[in-house]
Amino acid sequence: MSLRIIASTAVFAIALSACTTTSAPATPIEARWVGQSAGKYFAAYGPPISDTPVGATTLYNWRGGYNRIKLANGRTANVSCAAQLTVDADYTIRDIRITADRQGATGPSYCEELLTAE
Question: What's in the keyword line of the UniProt record (predicted)?
Fold first, then answer.
């Protein structure tokens, strides 16, 4: 009987070790803003265009950063950024998801250039 328990325990341990939880690495925007005050975000970049209560959180839709930039290829472009912020009851950003983006002046994401600048 004890051999059976040992074998079962070993099989369980092997199965459990095969289950690893991995989370996607945070984007630079998430690293900068998740855990920060939504008030700080909106003070820096302007107010949201809409909000929707969802249980204990609120989804804020934001659009801003309107600018005309010079691209790496020498051309100019009108750019902006749009994001959806999930904010909890204490006004802390729990998630930020980019919903519209353009090529930036120095890379593929204008939103990243805008929202990670110190």
Answer: Signal
Phi, psi (deg, nearest 5) at residue 69: -120, 160
- Which residues in the chain land under pLDDT 50? 7-21
CA distance to 10, 20, 43, 51, 112, per residue, from 94 (Å): 39, 24, 17, 15, 18
Report, in this order, helix, strand and coil percent for the chain, each rounded to 5: 30, 35, 30
Place of tokens 């519209």: 100
Q: What is the pTM of this model?
A: 0.76
Q: What is the DSSP letter of 37?
A: B
Closest to 33 measured CA to CA, from 99, 94, 91, 80 = 94
Tell me the C-alpha distance between 41 and 19, whole Å: 37
Structure tokens at 38: 């939504």
